[in-house]
Amino acid sequence: MSEQKNTYTSLPVLLGVFGDPIAHSKSPAMHNAALATAGVNGLYMPLHVRPEQLEAAVKGIVALGYRGVNVTIPHKEEVMKYLDVIDDSARLIGAVNTIVNDNGKLTGYNTDGIGYVRSLKEEAVPELAGKKIAVLGAGGAARGAIYALALEKPERISILNRTAERAEALASDLRRHGLGNITGSGMEEAAAVLASADILINTTAAGMHPHIDDVPVNPELIREGAAVSDLIYNPLETRLLREARLRGCVVHGGLGMFVYQGAVAFEHWLGIPAPVETMRRAVLDSFNK
Ligand code: NAP
User: Fold this and answer.
1) Which residues line ligand 1 (CB under 6 A)?
2) Distance 12 CA to ligand 1 centre (A)
3) Running DSSP on this structure, what letter comes out for residue 92?
4) pTM higher than 0.90, yes or no?
5) 8 Å CB contact between 171 and 184
6) pLDDT tens digits, one per residue of 37-53
7) Residue 77 and residue 58 in contact, taking contact as beta carbons nearer than 8 Å
């Protein structure tokens, strides 16, 4: 955790989020509520940055004295080339979602996967060591989540994806980085994998609004007593989670991932614990506006 370095203590700590589009982002509501609850004189702004202005915007972090920013679609990969230091989390995932400005030195982190795992442990499955984990999907969200899950030393992680080659490629890349027992296959392996999985994690978009009746896998394949987690938070409870809950499974939705990726970023910028429940409440309130 880096220390806050704002020498002009009477000025607000400046934070924000780069994205295109950005008006829909829930991050300003979440972080401004967190700053107020933590008693920090600070301001978190939505910053509309078009791709051709990304380099200038990154220079602007230093020029304007921003303590840091979040980075969202479509800049998470491209922004890496403008930073001074890339943390391991971001290098392995290949994307940055948080930048910290230490007196002009910009460091890029990725808090998505770490935030997801912190949320999973706090809200549903406290201990991941030794567990058999099945992950549905092999895109960017899967990569971040699997990186952070692997640090918890599960017995194995089995990636299942509609496009088998993508699952195999992701698994072999993560194995190459020494991240443990990770395999990838197509959905035809789902029955065998789910028969023994302790935790099932959906990282695909199947079931996300407006396609709320979709499921990424047949819920009847889920083992009784397994925990089921979905990265989707719109809706808060997907059909997969509803069906799993009715089968007696512990369920975990995607809102916590969003909240905790923000909490980990907040802690990088300010060096103090994030008020997680305030942040969760602020996001839920912003859904109702
Ligand atoms: P991505 O890179 O485009 O990857 C999408 C993945 O989902 C691929 O594996 C794709 O399979 C699979 N997929 C998409 N539609 C599917 C369908 N109808 N049936 C089965 N598989 C399907 O996207 P991403 O960035 O990884 O994001 C995936 C999801 O994660 C999003 O829906 C989002 O809700 C969620 N997410 C949540 C948070 C959070 O804070 N809670 C953060 C980031 C992402 P193929 O390879 O076969 O195309």
Assistant:
1) 112, 137-142, 161-163, 166, 203-206, 208, 214, 216, 231-233, 254, 257-258, 261
2) 37
3) H
4) yes
5) yes
6) 999 999 999 999 999 99
7) no
